[in-house]
Write a structure and sequence with these properties.
Layout (H helix, E strand, L loop, with lengths): L4 E2 L16 H8 L5 H4 L3 E5 L3 H13 L2 E5 L17 E2 L11 H11 L6 H21 L24 E2 L5 H18 L3 E4 L2 E9 L2 E9 L5 E5 L2 E4 L20 H8 L4 E2 L4 E7 L22 E5 L16 E2 L1 H5 L9 H13 L11 E4 L1 H7 L1 H19 L8 E10 L2 E2 L12 E3 L17 H21 L12 H20 L5 H16 L5 H21 L11 H25 L23 H4 L1 E6 L5 E6 L14
Helix pairs in contact: 3-6, 3-12, 4-5, 5-12, 10-11, 14-15, 14-16, 15-16
The structure holds flavin-adenine dinucleotide.
Length: 642
């Protein structure tokens, strides 16, 4: 049986043409508006309270809409966004180092290996400057220079300093800003907040998204909620690999359920593997820890020159070290983009130069920086990251170099959206990491926070008006057959999960799936490996539905049941990821096909054949719809950081 079939190509119908600098302005002007008095009559469901969902809910409520906001954590401010460490990009050019909106646009299109839409990326760069103003006005305590201006540092893939930060806790501070804005609207009665509720199904009536089915995670009660539009801001799916830098709860259920209801899923195989994570230390681990990319501003990456050299780092003299990033990529050095740095780390470890247990590590060394700047300056910049490293590894990075290795970190794939951030189901909008995003095949550091907040504070609140103004929509009766069917489907699935009553834990299946994905759909993929993985995933999924053991009942707080539902969806997603990776017989960004590389081992794209977004429709056999990508401004070229 064929693994996929080819469908009709798609176009982004909402994308404006004409000069790129004015596209967003013209789109906003062309969009219909909703009279402020009428906004009170319209309800929008927002699933997710991370930076994307939190900022969207606050802004929509501020504009006068009735918002109903959901998250599965015990408080909206515990969304995964709180983990973001390093910073957020914006083309402010405070450093006067040659930055501009155009340069941020250029860096992002190139960094994404020419697999993102130019219109979207340009808008992202334009809006980036507003985000910083908005957050400063909210009181987000960005780091400042002596003179009082906001400070900046550099992230990978750029030669300017455009990353705004709040020590190593930028996500937390930005989320507190969005959360405060939300709380103000909760207090004003414009946002109804449902924490500890998980969306388990999308409700679609007459082709329009009009509600969700949720489970109260404390009582187990299943309810439905109906609205004029639904926004998914449910984050990324990196946890399909079991081990990742994501919070343990991150999952694909909200977007996968929407996919099964008709929303196309785009570029699922584009996974970001971050080069600077604390290496895995054994089979007991349930997650991995990121060491922020900001550390590569001052940390130097190296391995012993001689393969198998197991002396302590301090005993390896300077001329017996290989600062391989500086050697191979002199123009960008330690600040090459993540996909490049991760592959380089894999290559040196594969050739026997890796350090630490199993040779799966490289050094990130601050000795030079401490000598040059002094320990207090290094402490000031990275103190909490160093402390975190020391607590986890028991080694003091002020004295010995950190050991790092690549790990799964971010997913560039997600639900397909048009320029208005609307999915292929009318009324269903998708923002933040949950959509297929503006990052193409590889996201540059500090660009996820930028995209999430651009979507939530500025883009969605404008574009959703156009959809809502096309109402009034038919009021859906909660007893409508589609609503009842969606609810019954959720109840039935939970019952089936509980009924298996097998002999293996949910985690054991998840861990095995994760190993499989890392092995065959991780840093390097091959046709044979991906074909094998699809068979193995199918077998494992069958085993899951016959052998999984979910203790407890559905009428109580039951974290095993929550996990089981998420892992069931991961199985289906994993297969689509492998199919997508198999069909894309080129290398691009985070997707490295061993069969498609340059003589010196760099990713080799095939623009004529694969210069498109791969958007998949759900079915027993998934259907591929290609959205061609046009590049009128940044012409595709070999991506070089040398
Ligand atoms: C360790 C780490 C550090 C990072 N550092 C940076 C950085 O320095 N700079 C940068 O730009 N990016 C960084 N990133 C990436 C960035 O943090 C994320 O991409 C971004 O925060 C995602 O935001 P989001 O709002 O889209 O989703 P999330 O913050 O993941 O929020 C998802 C929300 O959806 C809710 N949700 C999900 N599913 C359901 C459901 N079914 N029902 C109900 N609610 C649901 C959750 O409860 C949560 O509220 C980092 C990522 C990691 C892992």
């Amino acid at each position: 049986m064929d693994l996929w079939r080819l469908g009709e190509p798609i176009r982004d119908a909402a994308a404006p043409d004409g000069p790129i600098e004015t596209r967003w302005e013209r789109r906003q002007f062309a969009a219909k508006l909703v009279n402020p008095a009428n906004r009170r009559k319209l309800t929008v469901i927002v699933v997710g309270t991370g930076l994307a969902g939190g900022s969207a809910a606050a802004t929509l409520a501020e504009a006068g809409y009735r918002v109903r906001s959901y998250c599965y954590q015990d408080s909206p401010r515990r969304a995964h966004s709180i983990a973001a460490q390093g910073g957020i990009n914006a083309a402010k050019n405070y450093r006067n180092d040659g930055d501009s909106i155009y340069r941020l646009f250029y860096d992002t299109v190139k960094g994404g290996d020419f697999r993102a839409r130019e219109s979207n990326v340009y808008r992202l760069a334009q809006v980036s400057v507003n985000i910083i103003d908005q957050c400063v006005a909210q009181g987000v305590p960005f780091a400042r220079e002596y003179g009082g201006l906001l400070d900046n540092r550099s992230f990978g893939g750029t030669q300017v300093s455009r990353t705004f930060y709040a020590r190593g806790q930028t996500g937390q501070q930005l989320l507190l800003g969005a959360y405060q804005a939300m709380e103000r609207q909760i207090a004003a009665g414009n946002i109804a907040m449902f924490a500890r509720h998980e969306m388990l199904e999308l409700i679609v009536v007459a082709g329009r998204a009009c509600g969700i089915v949720v489970r109260d995670l404390v009582t187990g009660e299943i309810t439905t909620d109906l609205a004029d539009a639904v926004v998914l801001a449910s984050g990324g799916y990196g946890n399909v690999f079991f081990l990742s830098t994501n919070a343990k709860g991150c999952n694909v259920t909200a977007t996968w359920r929407a996919h099964r209801k008709g929303a196309l899923f785009a570029n699922p195989c584009y996974t970001q593997i971050h080069p600077t994570c604390i290496p895995e230390s054994g089979t007991h681990q349930s997650k991995l820890t990121l060491m922020s990319e900001s550390l590569r501003n001052d940390g130097r990456v190296w391995v012993p020159l001689r393969a198998g050299d197991d002396r302590n780092a301090q005993h390896i003299p300077e001329d017996e070290r290989d600062y391989y990033l500086e050697r191979i990529y002199p123009a960008f050095g330690n600040l090459v983009p993540r996909d490049i740095a991760s592959r380089a780390a894999k290559n040196v470890c594969d050739s026997g130069h890796g350090v630490g247990p199993g040779g799966l590590g490289v050094y990130l060394d601050f000795a030079d920086a401490i000598r040059r700047l002094g320990r207090p300056a290094v402490e000031e910049k990275y103190g909490n990251l160093f402390e975190m490293y020391q607590r986890i590894t028991g080694e003091d990075p002020y004295v010995v170099p950190m050991r790092i290795y690549p790990a799964v970190h971010y997913t560039m794939g997600g639900l397909w959206v048009d320029y208005d951030l609307q999915s292929t189901i009318p009324g269903l909008f998708v923002i933040g990491e949950a959509n297929f995003s503006d990052h193409g095949a590889n996201r540059l550091g500090a660009s996820a926070l930028m995209q999430g907040l651009a979507d939530g504070y500025f883009v969605l609140p404008n574009t959703i008006n156009d959809y809502l103004a096309s109402g009034p929509f038919r009021t859906i009766d909660p007893a409508h057959e589609e609503v009842a069917a969606a609810r019954a489907a959720v109840q039935d699935r939970l019952r089936r999960l509980l009924a298996v009553d097998g002999d293996r834990t949910v985690d054991s299946f998840h861990r095995e799936l994760g190993h499989l994905m890392w092995e065959y759909c991780g840093m390097e993929r091959t046709e044979a490996g991906l074909t094998k993985a699809i068979c193995l995933i199918r077998g494992l999924r069958e085993g899951f539905w016959t052998r999984v053991k979910v203790p407890g009942t559905g009428a109580e707080l039951n974290q095993n049941l929550e996990k089981a539902g998420r892992v069931a969806d991961f199985f289906e997603l994993a297969e689509l990821m492998c199919i997508d990776a198999l069909h894309r017989a080129e290398s691009a960004g985070g997707h490295f096909r061993a069969e498609s590389q340059t003589p010196d081992g760099e990713a080799l794209r095939h623009d004529d054949e694969f210069g498109y977004v791969a958007a998949w429709a759900y079915g027993d056999v998934p259907t591929l719809h290609k959205e061609p990508l046009d590049f009128a401004y940044v012409h595709p070229s070999t991506r070089s950081y040398k």
